[in-house]
Structure formats: C-alpha cells, structure tokens
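> example.struct
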C-alpha cells in the first residue's frame, strides 16, 4: 500500500481543481481497503474514496482526512449460458478497458458506454449512461464495504435504487458504501436498431448497415471524441450539468415561448430537456467565464482553462445557472460530486 501526505486534490481530479488532502492512500485489495478504513476510524480521520476523479470536484480547503484511491482489480466470468455471460469486475478496473474486453468477447450491454472515463466502481454511483444504455440496465449487484457496520455486503440491483444519473451511492447512502466489485450480466446477441439518434446518424452517414458490438463501440468512440474534450489536454469533468427534468405542464408552457425546444419523454408526467441546448440559447456556448470555458463543441461541458481555485468554478457555474434560470425558469443541477469536509 502506498500512502502520500499533503497532496493537492487538483492532481486527482480531471477538472484539476481542489486544495490539499492530508493523506492519499492507494488500495489494491479488499483487505488493504478495510485496513485503511479501520485505521482511519481508530485515529478519528475521515475517508473519501475516489476512482479516476473524472466526475469529482475538490474545494479550495481540500480534504482533512484520507483520500482512498481504489485500485482493486478483477475480471472473472462467474456464469455462462447460451444467451448470456455474467462477469464480476473489480471496482478499480478502468471502465473503458472493461468495455473493450467485453466487446472483444462479443458481449452486448455496455458497448455504448465506450470511452467513458473513470473506474468500474464509479459507474453505478452516478448510473453512467450514454447513447441509449446505462449501467443499471446490465448491473446485477455490487459488493461493497459498509463503513457503518465494518462488514462486506452484497447489494442487489433493487437496493441500488437507480434512476437518471442517480443511485443510493450519491443519494440516501452517500459516503456509506465503498464498492469493491460490480456484477454485470451481458448478452450474446447482436445490437439492433433503433439506436440513439446521434449514434444512428453517425452509422447512416458512414454507410454502416451491419452492426455488431465492435461497430457500435467504434462509432461511440468517434462521436465522443468529437464532442467531449480529452481531459488530459483540456481539464474537464464530462457533462458538468444534468439534463433538466420538467413536468409536462412546464414543458408545454416553455414550448409556447420556445417552439424549437427539444425534449424527450421520460415517463407519464416528465420530460427531459437537454441542458446543453438550454445553455446554448443563453449565448454562453464557447464563452470564457472566470478562467473556465463553456466548451464550444458541447455546452454541457465546462473546461478549466486557467482556474486555480474552486471560487472560479463557483463563479462560472453561478453565471451559467443564473442565465438559464432567467431565460427558462429552470434551475439546472451540477452533475459531478464535490469532495467536502462535512
Ligand atoms: N445540445 C445542444 N447544444 C449543445 C449540446 C447539446 O443543443 O451544446 C442538444 C442537442 O439538441 C442534442 C441534445 O442536446 O441533440 C442531446 O445532446 P447529446 O446527445 O450530446 O447528449 P447530452 O444530453 O448532452 C447525455 C449525457 C452524456 C452522454 C450523452 C450521449 C448527461 C448529463 N449527459 O448528454 O454523458 O455521453 O447523453 O448519450 O446525461 C457525462 O455524463 O459525462 C456524459 C458525457
């Protein structure tokens, strides 16, 4: 186990913002993780577990406890039949390497989640989703260390209470569980249209009419590279805001003023409105604000141009949220989680 002292959170978050953490511990096994958790508890130190830091923001005050970098490996077939293969995956595995391996095995279920940064253990926390798939569609269960009881537990799909970009891990049980493995059930079938609109347009434009998991993966990678900046070149945390969810009456009243507003039906009463579109209408797409920049290819992404403090990000965020509220009376919400001392 590797423990470092006084490390800036900006080095551990892809948006590269955040003051110092007292300790940073890399854990490679469940035993190491449990040892760090129990010792930290004994010494009165709090802990915060991170994966790739690609959906996280540090604050200027940093973290006065132990940041645990979860690097637990594992990729095992635990069940196999004529239709499906079930895999148990260590939470520290890089998510995109997992997707690549499942695509090589001709398994379908997470191919549209290609090139999403971060680790396998982080995927259920925000229920990662893209191009028509979300991890909740294939996840069976997770194993986790329960910091309340000090025991390992297994949580079923139902226990995780998934919804759009949400689960108990960032909601009612925030900070309680450290995910150590995820179990996914993937299918031995070829992906079939209709695909998510942007994916279908890419396939049509490139004359691709025979689909397998590898073609879908390649198409998703090409689309993402176009729309989402590489954080190693332009620091960012992926989508900085969630898409807005509104009730049907609100959508109808907005459509009277903005007849070209896109929206997608979620359930009987709710519609999703793309926040990228809302921000674009405010005129802020491509604008530099407080050393941050609204990405010119995708207004949902906020790039750290030269910000060195959380305050810059907070000022840019307030300006964007305010502009959207003024124009649409919708309060948009930040997607990445923040590391706090509370
Ligand atoms: N749009 C604009 N202007 C923009 C950006 C988007 O008008 O600058 C509108 C367009 O109408 C477009 C629509 O938004 O048709 C949807 O855009 P896109 O397909 O790019 O998806 P998104 O809703 O912006 C979500 C996820 C992404 C995921 C894509 C593809 C969230 C918060 N984001 O973005 O996930 O890759 O769908 O499925 O739900 C992430 O979470 O970090 C992420 C990248």
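> example.seq
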């Amino acid at each position: 186990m590797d423990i470092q002292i006084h490390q800036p959170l900006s080095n551990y978050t892809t948006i590269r913002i955040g003051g110092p953490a007292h300790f940073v511990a890399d854990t490679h096994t469940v035993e190491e993780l449990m040892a760090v958790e129990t010792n930290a508890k004994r010494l009165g130190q709090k802990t915060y577990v991170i994966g790739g830091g690609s959906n996280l923001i540090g604050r200027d005050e940093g973290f006065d406890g132990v940041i645990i970098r979860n690097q637990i490996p594992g990729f095992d077939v635990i069940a196999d039949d004529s239709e499906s293969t079930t895999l148990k995956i260590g939470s520290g595995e890089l998510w995109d390497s997992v997707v690549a391996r499942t695509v090589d095995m001709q398994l379908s279920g997470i191919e549209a989640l290609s090139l999403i940064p971060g680790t396998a253990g982080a995927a259920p926390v925000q229920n990662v989703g893209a191009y028509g798939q979300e991890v909740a569609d294939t996840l069976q269960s997770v194993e986790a260390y329960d910091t309340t009881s000090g025991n390992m537990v297994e949580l079923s799909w139902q226990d995780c209470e998934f919804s759009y970009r949400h689960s108990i891990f960032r909601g009612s049980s925030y900070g309680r569980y450290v995910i150590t493995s995820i179990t996914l059930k993937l299918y031995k079938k070829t992906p079939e249209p209709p695909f998510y609109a942007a994916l279908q347009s890419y396939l049509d434009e490139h004359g691709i009419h025979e689909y397998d998991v590898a073609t879908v993966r390649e198409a998703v990678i090409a689309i993402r590279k176009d729309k989402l900046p590489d954080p190693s070149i332009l620091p960012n945390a992926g989508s900085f805001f969630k898409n807005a969810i509104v009730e049907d009456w609100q959508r109808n009243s907005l459509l009277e003023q903005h007849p070209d507003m896109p929206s997608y039906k979620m359930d009987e009463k709710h519609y999703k409105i793309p926040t990228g579109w809302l921000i674009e209408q405010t005129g802020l797409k491509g604008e530099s604000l407080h050393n941050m920049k609204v990405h010119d290819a995708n207004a949902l992404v906020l790039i750290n141009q030269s910000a060195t403090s959380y305050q810059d990000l907070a000022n840019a965020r307030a300006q964007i949220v305010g502009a959207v509220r003024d124009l649409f009376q919708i309060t948009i919400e930040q997607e990445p989680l923040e590391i706090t001392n509370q």
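> remarks
Residues 130-131, 165, 196, 198, 227-228, 238-239, 242-243, 262, 274, 276-277, 280, 285, 298-300, 335 surround EPU (CB under 6 Å).
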